[in-house]
Q: What sequence folds into this?
């Protein structure tokens, strides 16, 4: 991964890390007996999973765009 890709991923990784810390805090405060907290925890887990999927898709698109830009104008034409 080149430095540009890393720079673009840093904010998303920070959001994911913050969310994981928030999940851990909620779990430690609530204990296993609170169904409301368990539901909130599961919702946050789903959200983190969705964000992770978005990050992977974004990185793939960025890698594709970088490969296309690295090619010369002749190579970028469709059908070449």
A:
């Amino acid at each position: 991964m080149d430095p540009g890709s890393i720079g673009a991923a840093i904010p998303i990784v920070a959001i994911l890390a913050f969310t994981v810390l928030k999940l851990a805090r909620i779990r430690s405060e609530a204990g296993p007996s609170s169904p409301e907290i368990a539901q909130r925890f599961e919702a946050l887990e789903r959200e983190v999973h969705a964000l992770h999927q978005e990050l992977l898709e974004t990185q793939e698109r960025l890698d594709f765009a970088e490969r296309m830009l690295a090619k010369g104008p002749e190579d970028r034409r469709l059908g070449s």
Q: What stands out?
A: The chain has one domain: 3-71. The mean pLDDT is 77.
